[in-house]
Design goal:
The chain is α/β, with parallel strands linked by helices and 142 residues long. The chain has one domain: Rossmann fold. The protein is 44% helix and 18% strand. It is built from five helices and five strands, in the order βαβαβαβαβα. Helix 1 crosses helix 5 and helix 2 packs across helix 3. Keywords: Cobalamin, Cobalt, Isomerase, Metal-binding. It holds the Pfam family B12-binding. This is Methylmalonyl-CoA mutase, alpha subunit, chain B.
Length: 142
């Protein structure tokens, strides 16, 4: 299949005990409206659940929504599990309440982009289109 015909597949997840998922649902809807196929896993997901769903669904990207302050833990766990499962090429991005000083550490972990409150959903969609296009090129799927 030609990469121009293929739809970008994105998994949106809410790790941990944080029960506030309005932002995750807004992003999921916006990405769907932008023509992407979106799987929303719902609240209170473990890193194992997120990674297993991502691998089973053959997604291009995982978006984590974290408002609880546990972002460093969850991003680390998800990126490590992806590598352990041979799926380290899946793009990981996120959103939520994440302090600027943590952004370089998240980048080192392999997190592609972090969208904080106020970021436009168009920016998130544009980022994913470009990042997934690069992923497909690396994998020879474009």
């Amino acid at each position: 299949m030609d990469g121009t015909d293929r739809r970008i597949r994105v998994l949106i997840a809410k790790p941990g005990m944080d029960g506030h998922d309005r932002g995750a649902k807004v992003v999921a809807r916006a990405l769907r409206d932008a023509g992407m196929e979106v799987i929303y896993t719902g609240l209170r997901q473990t890193a194992d659940m997120i990674v297993n769903a991502a691998v089973q669904e053959d997604v291009d990207a995982i978006g984590l929504s974290v408002l609880s302050g546990a972002h460093m833990h969850y991003f680390k766990e998800v990126t490590e599990l992806l590598r352990e499962q041979g799926a380290g090429d899946i793009i990981v991005f996120g959103g939520g309440i994440i302090p600027d000083q943590d952004l370089p550490k998240l980048k080192e972990m392999g997190v592609g982009q972090v969208f904080t409150p106020g970021t436009s959903t168009e920016d998130a969609a544009a980022y994913l289109r470009e990042a997934v296009r690069e992923r497909w090129a690396r994998l020879g799927e474009d």
